[in-house]
Amino acid sequence: MNDRQYQVLVLCTGNSARSILAEMLFNALGKGRLIAYSAGSKPAGRVNPGALEWLQQHGYSTEGLRSKSWDEFAAAGAPELDFIFTVCDNAAGEVCPIWPGKPATAHWGIPDPAHVEGDEARRAAFNKAAEQLARRIQLFLSLPIDKLDKLTLKEQLAEIGRIQD
To answer: pLDDT tens digit string along 93-138?
Structure first.
């Protein structure tokens, strides 16, 4: 990556778990090279307690986190986005708003840890989701974004989304 700061939006239907984790991981791993946001097509209205627990246990501040509508990022005055990633299959299949700036998009589907039954199993599912997201984000950060044409970049983003572990 070059020195340019990129704007990233992570989408999921409810914006309560996976997209929240991805927002925080993009911001942390990007070390100022990225400004990440998250949103949902049908926001849950709250951040999932399992996501909050995982973030707090791993040293992330949860202050100010909230479940947001993707409409906030399609409105006038919204950040001009460079990249949009969907992390749930439902959001990937929905008709999205028109995004300012014509961002590159990719689907990085992650199984939903919020619906796993049992405390230990749910914690393990949140760990796995965060590990998968972190791995994909690290691969994204290693791309020479400024040197790739749009088609090659789109192909690389899609390939990263197919990585399971």
So the answer is: 566 676 767 899 999 999 999 989 999 999 999 999 999 999 999 9
Note the pTM of the prediction, 2 decimals: 0.92
Domain spans of the chain, in order of start: 6-161
Q: Which of 143, 140, 128 is nearest to 26 (CA)?
A: 140
Q: Which residues are catalytic?
A: 12, 88, 96
Closest CA to 130 of 12, 25, 35, 10: 25
CATH number of 6-161: 3.40.50.2300
